[in-house]
């Protein structure tokens, strides 16, 4: 028997219409679907793709503790990989839903690491929160020969400062509870007025405001954008 | 009369199936469609979306000289903006097709700069070449608290070297004719074996190989990826 194929599929930033046609087709056809889910509520990745999921599909939620904010115990992925491998061994394809893009700051890599050597693997890239946040403000992320740096919010102030100084365009991901510290840092660097904030990009409750007006209790899925290069509106 | 809306729509990296459902719907419904085109052949953005374009749509190609490799004369965008504005003034929506994402290293900003103050503008983000190239190799771009830096290939060796040294994950865009110099640079930095190359991501003639095996005459739409962070396959 031929083993099934593992699909890592990006569901995009949140709006179900920002799922690609390829991802939608594969999700609709999927008989086995896995996705990360917090221990506190529903899976964001599953909620984005919900309308495409067949009621007959076997679902494999990977329950990841959210409260720590750290990488979860890798035993969760050991267990999930074993369940997924059993389906692949039985000749069934398995679709793994990933918020945004599977390979851009996601947890899909933990499954990929466990399964890539033994099974055929295909990745369907998705729209990232990066470009969805730029779209929310209708402002260019980067242009021409700009240097663009993507920085996770949990990094220390010194690391963030050094990187921000050397880049033309900056995106701070995973803002969440780091917002008060990040706002203070941007103010010290003289960038508070130019920086932009986006929370819940592409969803009905999206909030796009200047960073100075951003809420101190920002959600985990939120971003700060800063453009420092030559005038992006140059004519 | 109410003026029309300007839509900047990402068509994704090349595979028409990587267009989002939202972009596809808007392109199908569009009565006026603009797109960049080289003076040497067909428009890549239009070719990606071709199957969604109505035969009745008015098309506004923006012919951009490709041979210089520099920003084209801005008069091209002045002329295109005037044509588009005439349709918007007549109450018609105008869809502008953009390879990848409209706000990620694209030329859409030149139109946006000319039209954003006078017309309602909406952006539909698209899958970028960045994640499409990672998908081609099925390797993580960046993870956890990695610093990811995106660098245009035309930058000078000193600038590239300084940035590559400080990042965990690196993507070099717009490789094209800079390939021999970039390959030599990666070799000097000791990264030739770890770096990956992708040309024509997501298309039938996609080429994904280690950088050492990449062609010296790389296409403009090609990329080098390097992961230097902690083992992305960490369990």
Q: Give the integer mean of the pLDDT values of chain A.
A: 94
The major pleated sheet of chain A works out as: 5 strands, parallel
Number of strands of chain A: 10
Strand order of the largest sheet of chain A: 3-2-4-1-5
Greatest interface and its residue counts? Answer: A-B, 70 and 70 residues
Q: Which shape of chain A, going by the Cα principal axes?
A: elongated
Class from secondary-structure proportions of chain A: alpha/beta
What radius of gyration of chain A results from the CA coordinates?
Answer: 19 Å
- Return the string of H and E elements of chain A: EHEHEHEHEHEHEHEEE
Multimerization state: homodimer
**Corresponding CATH superfamily of the largest domain in chain A:** Tetrapyrrole methylase, N-terminal domain
Per CATH, the class of the largest domain in chain A reads Alpha Beta
Structure, briefly:
Two copies of one chain form a homodimer. The first copy, chain A, is an alpha/beta fold and 235 residues long. Chain A is built from seven helices and ten strands.
Describe this structure in words.
The structure is a homodimer of 235-residue chains. Chain A has 7 helices and 10 strands. Chain A is α/β, with parallel strands linked by helices and 235 residues long. Chain A folds into 2 domains: 6-124, Tetrapyrrole methylase, N-terminal domain (Cobalt-precorrin-4 Transmethylase, domain 1, 3-Layer(aba) Sandwich), CATH 3.40.1010.10; 129-227, Tetrapyrrole methylase, C-terminal domain (Methyltransferase, Cobalt-precorrin-4 Transmethylase, Domain 2, 2-Layer Sandwich). Chain A has a 5-stranded parallel beta sheet with strand order 3-2-4-1-5, with helices on both faces. In chain A, strands 6-7-10-8-9 form a 5-stranded mixed beta sheet, with helices on both faces. Chain A is elongated. The interface between A and B is large, with 70 and 70 residues.
